[in-house]
Write a structure and sequence with these properties.
The chain contains 16 helices and 3 strands. It is mainly α. The chain has 3 domains: about 10-175, Tetratricopeptide repeat domain (Serine Threonine Protein Phosphatase 5, Tetratricopeptide repeat), CATH 1.25.40; about 175-225, no CATH class; about 230-340, no CATH class. It has a 3-stranded mixed beta sheet, with helices on both faces.
Amino acid sequence: MRPDTPAENVDHTAEAARLERTAGLYPEDAEALLLQAAAHLELSGDRPAASTLYDRLLSSAGSLEDPCLVRALKAANLWEYGHEAEARAIIDGVRAAAPRDPAPWVIVAEALEAHDELQAAQETFTQGVRLLLADGAEPPYPTHPLLYGRHRVRRMQGAPHDDWDTLADSVHLTQSSPTSGVSLDELHDPKRVWSLGSDNPVELAAEISRLRAELGAYREALSRPFPVAVLHWPATELAELLEAYPPLAEEYPSHDTHLATIEASLRELSSSGTPNLGIVTGTVPSYEAFAASEGASPGDTSLLPQYATTLAARGRAAEWPPQRGTACWCGSGRGYGECHGAE
């Protein structure tokens, strides 16, 4: 998990301190803010301080939104400054917990890969893929790094393609530029890695030229936007929101209308070909904190889509439509197909 800001021209230590102060002001967003702060500390080279922030999160009184993600990030960071045994123990714990979020799987598997534990990395990628991807189902976008990582490690091992590798190839071709013509096998060719690490200036120059030629074709895929997210207010939160900010009643005449509008909007976006649709769930304290950070009034309706985009950028978007057999996004407890997913 890396900061949203670019690595160049950033005082990572100062940015980490700013994010820690902001987390103290807005405890409801502390988890996301402290994870960003820890990432800045890692980039500054102060890995022990980053571990301290991970420990602070894991020992906090409130429940974390994604404890496995925090543990995975802590393990990867620990290994980078010599705490291999502790990192391995945490990685084993993450794997045993079997999180339903792809991010912890990717982080711990890539940590193993980075330290030449290719077999363990391949087993970790495979465990995550088998848990999170149903046979025959279209892989959700957040699971793509699992497929790609598994393909990459198996390519390094010289393993023959299996069904998951074929699926990774198919997903890659769908998501990349149609004019690129570069397969995953070529992208993950070990010789390319060796060329980039070569001491021979001719080999290195040739590989750099090759990468430059591919950059234009991959620019669109590599700069993929955050999911298009629609804002959802649970009934209690919407009631509190409208009581505090009556001007928003024009935007939300009733909760039932609000839910129907969400589903209709997403279906319209889907039918027009818009990919990566999602739903983010708002809370009044979080929205007020966002409005304060923007120097705007929470009663301003133009702030609502910005708030939704920010939640999506923080990884809070739930995939729409929900996968078959899962509960409806509205929180009714019924299956999506029996609720808002019904024709």
